Every structure is written in C-alpha cells, then in structure tokens.
Amino acid sequence: MAFTGFPEENTSQISIPDQFFRHILLKIDKLDELKLTMYIFWRLDRMEGSYPFIKFSDLLNDSQLTQSVVKEPSRAHTVLGVALRRAVKRGTLLAADLENEQDKIICLNSPKGRAMIHAVQRGEWQPSTSTNQSAEIFSKHPNIFQLYEANIGPLTPLIADALRDAEKTYQETWVEDAFRIAVEHNKRNWHYIDAILHRWQEGGRDDRKDQQDRRSDEKARRRYSDWEK
User: Fold this and answer.
1) What is the pTM of this model?
2) Where do runs of H (alpha helix) occur along 18-75?
3) CB atoms within 10 A of CB 182
4) How far apart are CA 54 and CA 57, in angstroms?
5) What is the rounded distance in angstroms from the CA atom of residue 157 to the CA atom of residue 175?
6) What is the distance between the alpha carbons of residues 65 and 72, in angstroms, rounded to a whole number?
7) Cα 99 off chain centre by
8) Proportion of the chain in helix, strand, coil states, percent, rounded to 5
C-alpha cells in the first residue's frame, strides 16, 4: 500500500546534520547501513538529555526494524551487526562494548558522542536502566566536557579536540579549579582556562599567587565600578 503523503501542518521533525547529506549519504552503498543510520538518527532525536544513546539490544527489540532488514529473525543480530560495523567504519556512528553486558552502546560521531564513548571505554559512564534515557555519569568529578558545557557553552569540534588534549595533559583537580577561577573572573572562554593550566604546568602551581591575582582583579573591578558612578 502506497504512502498517502505528508500533512501540511503539525508534522514532527527530526534533526539530521547537514554534513550527513554532503559527505555521507551518497557514499552509502548498502541499504541495511542506510536504514540503520536513519533509524538511529530518528531514535536519538526523540530522546532527552545531553548525551543520548541507544543500545544494540534496542535495535533487536524493534520488530519493525528487524523485519525491514531480514525475513528470518534469527539473522537480525548478524545483519544489523554488519550494518553497524559499516556505519562505524564510515565514521557516521560510534559504538563501544558495555562491561558486564553482552551489548553495545551506540551514538553519533559528534564531540559529545566521542566524549561518551571514551568515558564508557574507561569505565566512567554507566547507562541508565531505561533505554529511553541518556547515559548517567557516575564518576566522582565532572569530566572536562561537562565542565565546559556547564560554564562556557556548547561544544564545537575544535573545542572538543582541545579539551581532550587538556584532559590528557593536566590533573583533574587542576582542570576543575581553572574553570572555577575563570568563572570567578567572568572570563568564560577556553583560552583563559588553558592559559591558567599552562602557567601552572610551566611554573608550578602557587595558590597564594592565584589568590593575590583574584584580589587584585576584584580591586580593579571595584575601582572601575566606582569610577563609572
């Protein structure tokens, strides 16, 4: 039976990155990979939270998806597994094995997705029990990506790469403290934070000097405020 057509109004929309159409779509030569990719775009777009994901078992539990790619249910695991590996190799999707589960976590190849997969591989992320929820982090300290989004703004690919390098270079507590200092100084940008971390690494960390700098900046702000009056 043919599709009757899209209505003019009240049609829900999903977001697909423009890069998918410009760099990926026309290179996909396997229908199963295309179906899987579009299905995951749709599922992830309907989820709430900053770090949406889907499990491989969720794919297998959707009978409409499995029936669209294979007639024999017993072959769905193999067929979808091959499609997923193709999408991961192409760079569209990311996947990682979950500890203590015969399952995989799947997300888009984006700065947030790369951060989440990296955290899963290091054992710092735990998926929630509900597949309709995004991952929940159980680490003691917020990671550098969370700190950036909470205090600076949305991630970009260039910033995500810089944060990943900084995470490998600097101590976790230093990163948190540098973000805090930037917020206190109302200098909410990565260059300022990176400069603090670089100074600490090159010359050693001197908390007394940092406190003096903060007091000096506060005095300067008060003088400027008084002058404006």
Assistant:
1) 0.58
2) 18-19, 31-45, 56-60, 63-69
3) 22
4) 8
5) 19
6) 12
7) 20
8) 60, 5, 35
Place of tokens 């270079």: 169
pLDDT in tens, the chain (229 residues): 787 787 766 567 788 989 999 999 999 999 999 999 999 999 998 887 777 899 999 999 999 999 999 989 899 999 999 999 999 999 999 999 987 778 999 999 998 899 888 888 888 776 754 444 433 333 445 678 878 888 888 877 788 888 888 988 998 889 999 999 999 999 999 999 999 999 999 888 765 555 555 555 554 444 434 433 4
**Distance from C-alpha of 139 to C-alpha of 11, rounded to nearest angstrom:** 40
Structural domains of the chain ordered from first start: 23-137 (1.10.10), 144-228 (1.10.10)
Residue count (the chain): 229
Report strand pairing: 136-137 vs 125-126: antiparallel
Q: Which residue is associated with the tokens 């591989």?
A: 121
> What whole-number distance in Å separates Cα of residue 34 and Cα of residue 25?
8
Q: Euclidean distance between the first and final Cα of the chain, in Å?
A: 75
